[in-house]
Fold each of these.
Amino acid sequence: MLLLRCLSKRSIFPVSLGGSRSELCLGATGDLVDRCPELNHSRRFTMCENKSPLMERARNIVPHLETTRHKGQAGRIGVVGGSLEYTGAPYFAAISALKVGADLVHVFCPQAAAQVIKSYSAELIVHPLLDSNNAIIQIEPWLERLHVLVIGPGLGRDRVVLQTVAELIKICRQLQKPLIIDADGLYLITHDVSLVKDYYGLILTPNAIEFCRLFGNDRSRIWEMMEKLGRGVTVIEKGLNDRIYDSLTMEKFECPQGGSARRCGGQGDLLAGALATFYFWALESKQEISPATVACFAASYLTKTCNSHAFKLKGRSMTCTDMIEQIHVVFEECFEHKKE
């Protein structure tokens, strides 16, 4: 009801853009929306600076640090991923969720990846269950304790593991669990979109190649494909300008540019982990009409700014670990509540 009421109170300003008639309207969130009759959809663009309305909303969802809070209140995040070859990706996602401010992060991975991931950090709770014979029975009790689940970093394409993950997605849907799907998790759903159709509270995080697999190469059909995914699904397309597609309002948000020309591995994992924490905070704030969109914006902004900071220090030798080391500095600059 709140969403419909807010969206109905827009002011419309007809303008001429490139010889075609469009309408600029002030959206419920204070961003400018470009409505083009030719597309029959709305496209929202945010300003490339940290004073944009979405940036202010991102700051507002960050919980205050208070001594009255207990462990777990700032977020209990789950990461499902990892494989024999890829142990870094789930670690990057999990440690980024912690560094942004989640209290606890659980990693559910195959046996072969568990000891390696544990060796990276004592901060993570690692469950070597993903390829066990009774994986679902062992993992399901943990799901109710978690606020947000990330599926995909380093997952690989083992058939048995992917079948287990497909069952986990079904259980998460039943539990109405906020879910983020990244990397090889996206590979899974490109082969069976029904797993996530109409999954309210789902966020997909494709890079350029993964986006093409999901949506095809015809960008004029993006909204048609969004409608096939169903209402309540949000997509953040990673690129030079990250783009957020909100299926509830059928609007596109352009995130600010940033980062550098250094494209080291692991940046998408950092974003996925940060996104999980921001997403829980946005949901917990109870003040957001589009919590997924605000969380996506915050995670995008944080990741690109970490890249920029780390690149200034390390240049061509910068790695994702260098970016993670910048999370504290960037968070303090951009998101932390300032003392009076």
Amino acid sequence: MDEQAPHKDRQKKELQKQLDEFQMLSAIYCNPGELRVDDYGCIDNLNSYISGETDRLTTKLDYRFELPLLPDQKVQILVELPHRYPAQEMPRIVIRSAVIPRDQERRLTDRIVRYIEEEVLERDEAYVLQVVGWIQDNFAELLAATAERKESKACPRSTGATTSPIVFERLWIYSHHLKSKMKRQTIIKTARDLRLTGFSRPGKPAIICVEGQQADTQEFWRTIKPLKWQKIQIKLCETETVAAGGENEMAALRHFAAGFREELFCADMDEDSDAEDQPMSMSLFMKFLDKHRCGYIKKELFGFQGAIDAPAS
């Protein structure tokens, strides 16, 4: 225990810097909607850890800015802070917008990482404010630079140059529950932006399936995993290599060709109740899986309970 004391003291100092910075950011970005935390319980957990009331860190501090960086369009800047930020780990800062393609959002994220590595010289102190200020001041140039990079990378395709094989992937994700409308919207938007197919079942339990190119399914997982979950895990990951340019082969591997949808599997839908509060009919869900050639997943999701025709509690 004594050997861990210096580590805990350093950890507490890092977390205190995170909270102090968030308080400062709240004073600067004080207009309604500019800065939000989805779960203020994370701040309570960090404060309890710093004060010694608890020895467990159950959450990370994450928050989002919503700023008018485009004409008639607000842009989200999502910030997730690892427990050892700022001195030992970098924050995850992601830009999200309905009008920015997902592949360009990934390049913007890479550019932010490069800025931190090259321009943030003093990382002993918190620096999210510096990064967000840089994004605000240079957003138009950042968009232009990442768009130009996209065009330049597209050119070799017309020359007949060889490309690497594509990996098709299907992820089965299981969570204790999914009720938040914001999470549900994020899941649907992210999957559709990445051109993934599959479904999401909100409620308790929550089940998500996404399929498509591995780069996109992994990006989907990286996007939704930092959201506040009581428990979330990948139950099964299926992969298969497809020859470059094999769109037909990729399409044949998909089990949910209609796109990505939210499915409820409710036998008797009460119009006055929220969808996520409705019990899931196992019978309807099993039929859905069989219809889409996914009967094999029953055991992975439910063990031997997959054959029981009873509502999930």
Amino acid sequence: MNTNISIPVEEHGEAECGCCFELLVEPTTLVCGHTFCKHCLARWTVTSGQRRCQTCKQGWRGSPKVNIVLRNMLQNAWSQKMADRVQEVDTDENRRFLSDFDKMNNIVTAQELLQSVHGGMSAGISNAQNNQTRCKYFTSGIALTVLVFCIVSYIGNIGQRTLIDTPVKQWNTDDVVTWIGHLGTWGDHFSDAIRKNSIDGKMLLVMQESDVRNRLNMTNELQRKVFLKEIAAMVTTGSKQPVNLWEYKSAYPVFTFTMLLGFKLFPRITIGYSYIFEYDTVYTPFMKYACSEFSGNDMEEATNFSRLFYIAFLPYWLVGRYASAWTTDHYWVSRFIVLVCAFATIYDVMLFLTIFMKKWTEKDVKYDIIFFCL
């Protein structure tokens, strides 16, 4: 850039300071565009304590610098007068103001920098919190979707077909073979006879004792009674009775889901409810698998004594025993339930020890009674 531009003397008014109205010395231009002598700007800022333009009152930040281009142009235009002006303003008082001005600028600039960093950190923390909140909502949405899908899958038997969902009249020969297999291991011996005679659901509902003896060659009287009894029940209801977990769940989806939550969260209350209201349909089959060592005449004794102890103190142990009886049919699910019940049983035992070893207060007794009931 050519700095040897001459400015006529009669136009020197444009090169005057807006504060002292003399020729600019070390011209310093603010962000608003107004220019002052550096010592005049220093005197004004230090004495007033304000970082504002004297002309337009607009605030400025940072540390203003000398306009080098303008300074060179002034020196070329008025070299002698600029030298006289420099010597004139070079006083101890102006040097003190310039020193205080620089110190003030350094302090304020550092504060502004810290505020900027703090603002950036606050914005970053706010963004991180917002991202965390969005991530939490997103994760919660996924978890809720999975939960809803699991509930719908459970109630709707997605991927699991059971005979109980199909009317007996619509059964084919394979369905009849599956049904008789559910009656016991003895039913598998008649699978070939059913296929040979092409017995479907409609033929099954009208079979008499003579048909069972002749077509299926079922000579055992006890087996014939069980077979005909099941057929009579299906003639009445139009569908087969549930004989395993999947079929019972399919027949009573809401009740089964409620009972599962009850066994998980409130096992003592749930077992007590099944004993009072669902003795034949829930309690007896549950105890049969949970306490398989009791059978026959020992069943009543176990119900009255031993099982009461397990229900009161080790309910999760009973649930684990019940799940372990189904490991051949539900390998991984049963083992997972057994593992969860093992941890829950350990937690129950430790909690009981804590309750009985501490000094009881009236408030503790109320809470412990509530826990014992649950």
Amino acid sequence: MFQEAFKYYKARNPPPSFENVIDVCKSSPAGLDQRLKTIASAITKDAHHPGLIPAQEWKIYEILDRPGLILIANPFTKPAQRYWMTRCLLDYPKHPNRTNLPETVIDQFGAYSGTDDPREHFDWWFIAHSIEDPQQRTKLWKALRWTTLGYHYDWTNKVYDEAARNDFPADLGELCRHFAETLGFHGFRPEAAIVNYYPTGSTLAGHTDHSEKNLEAPLFSFSFGQPAVFLIGGPTRDEKPDALLLRSGDVIVMTRASRLCYHAVPKVFPCAESGRQRWAEPEAEESETMATTAEEAPVAPAAYAANVWNDSHRNRGWQQQSTSNGNGFADYISNSRININIRQVLNEGENHL
């Protein structure tokens, strides 16, 4: 039944109906979708994190038929969404992080002629941005489908390897720990991430995530860019899945039983509300709900705050490239979805595999 649902939502002609898709933004005379349950944050005092609305204002839901599956409706500000998309496009695909880019693509588009590994010198975004031919630029854009951070996953053997490990990005780690604390998952350690890049029209087949040693720890998934349909079923493919609509900024957290359930992305599609103009337009001054006195002011996580609130870093490539010839960040994200999946690999008290 899972595969039938996947094929239904993947179809283009005729396109699927979204009538039964869980959409937290859909208004209804009956109120909240009866398949959802509102849950409260585990934080009892004011908790602020740069780029997020206060945790007490988050709209947090659990899917009733999928115990442990949590959905948070976009808690990010627009500048923070742009910041994380910039990190995923400009920084995360670089060495020593690993990507899916095949040698044929590295050879075709790279210009390095030294003797060491050309991957160490391949700057995916810089090279794509410099390509004048839009067809060749799009080809290189679409060639990148994933990059890994921290512990690098071995896709062939379906394992993690201590020898394939780099430092986890400090700002991303701070962000994820804030979500974990807000939801009551104290002590969560972000140790591995897979960043997926989805051109509109692409899919992710049904699978489970079971390679981490610690399967009790939650899995955090952040969506940015174009919307997608997310399917979540049961522990086998025989169970009919629920379909959720994910928009830019939405967060999925898989905990408890849902951690080992089959899930998939059968559809990524362009949407006017998340189009190029939304991301390319100059920012208006945004009023953040932050404390105003020294006594009330939260201690901003250093690695995150130093970058998110630095305009030159946060906006690099958005406004400057918005008037370019189709090779800017806004042009890419108007036809793509980016998804960051973060996991804890090790058990509590362990420092290595």
